[in-house]
Amino acid sequence: MSKRLILGVLSAVVAGLAVPLVGCEVEETEPTPTAQATPTPDIRAELERLRLEEDAKPRFEGVLSGIRLYTGGGKDVERKNACSDAKPEEVQHLDMSAVVGTPMEIDPSYLPASAEEQPTMWPPVACKGIVTDVERWWVIPGKGNLFIARRQGEQAVASSSSADRVSAGTVGGKPAVLVAPLTPEGYGQSVVIIAEDFGLTIVFADGLPLDETVKVAEGLG
Prior knowledge:
By secondary structure, the protein is α+β, with helices and mostly antiparallel strands. It has one domain. Helices cover 14% and strands 31% of the residues. The strands form 3 sheets. Strands 5, 6, 7, 8, 9, 11, 12, 13 and 14 form a 9-stranded antiparallel sheet that branches. Strands 3-4-10 form a 3-stranded mixed sheet, with no helix packed on it. Strands 1-2 form a two-stranded antiparallel sheet. Strand 11 (166-171) and strand 12 form a beta hairpin. Mean pLDDT is 82; it is low at 1-36.
């Protein structure tokens, strides 16, 4: 796998932000694996209508809660981290045990009932000796999926959500950006983006209401 492909995949941002299900900040990338939520036919029809409406709405672009949201691509706007200019020999894949006890560890104290953890496509990654990307992923049978990522570096995220879905908030006393789902049931993706000393924590869910997604984020510490 090329360095560009590796770093592009690891800079991918969860849906509701770039393109559903994952918006990639670099070309030639593969999406992070996800399970699809399973709404009823009536909800699917409503969801399709809402997506078409959203396509016509303006996107939010700017700084909210200290987090920069951007819609374009290219090196001048993409978020920066230790992998942005790393050489292939400076990229290292780690075991999950390598981040236990560090700020990059993902150890939620709350998960929705019946959530089943799935193997992640990408293990923790370090560039130049700095852990840059950690992720975990759960399927919630009958509802959808839950994805949690911690990203080192600039507090910036690629976003394609309409401006009316995006709001400022706080989670666990930290500045955050909240992205409401398209439906009250949580279909159309709810997202919580938290500003951290190391960069960002991102909690993405499909099939969960925003308040439930926030509850997961609050349990991360």
